[in-house]
Amino acid sequence: MQRQHSNGSAAYDLDNFRTRTPRARSKKPTLTVTRPSRSVRARRRLATAMKVAAVIAIGVAVVVMMLYYRAVLTELTLQISSERTKLNEEISEGTRLAAELEEWFLFYKEVWRSVSRESELYRIQDVVFGYADLLRG
Questions:
Q1: What is the pTM of this model?
Q2: Three-state SS for 136?
Q3: What residues have CB less than 8 Å from 60, skipping those under 6 apart?
């Protein structure tokens, strides 16, 4: 049996397509906020205290490392400067020896010319001036 609607057609009767009865709506649950228990709060406070202690320990470790490396760099700087001073002394000593060697060769050249010909003197001069250049670095 079909019921007649205002438009006169059963094709628009949607009640015929419902197979289930509608459910009764249940009440929505109410949300209540409860405080955590004492043990949970104590654990949270302990965890927070441990985090703060860890951050402080890391900060102290960073400061100690910075001070240590500053001391190491200061020591290395002192060693470098002392080695540089020694090197400068060696260079000045080499320059002094080179000047004395060249002065000696000038005297030797005069003696050579008085007793020998100059044909082999240029070879000796090349060797002596080569050593003087090595002494100067």
A1: 0.43
A2: helix
A3: none
Amino acid identity for residue 27 in this structure: K
State the DSSP string of 53-112. Answer: HHHHHHHHHHHHHHHHHHHHHHHHHHHHHHHHHHHHHHHHHHHHHHHHHHHHHHHHHHHH
- As a whole number of angstroms, the distance between CA 132 and CA 123 comes to 14
- Show Cβ contacts of residue 98 under 8 Å, excluding neighbours closer than 6 positions: 131, 132, 133, 135, 136
Distance between CA 131 and CA 125 in Å, rounded? 10
Token match 């009767």: residue? Answer: 13
Counting every residue, how long is the chain?
137
For residue range 45-75, list pLDDT tens digits in order: 999 999 999 999 999 999 999 999 999 999 9
Nearest to 136 by CA among 101, 103, 91, 105: 91
pLDDT tens, residue by residue, 81-104: 999 998 888 888 888 999 999 999
- The residues, ordered by sequence, that sit 6+ positions from 129 with a Cβ below 8 Å of its Cβ are 102, 105
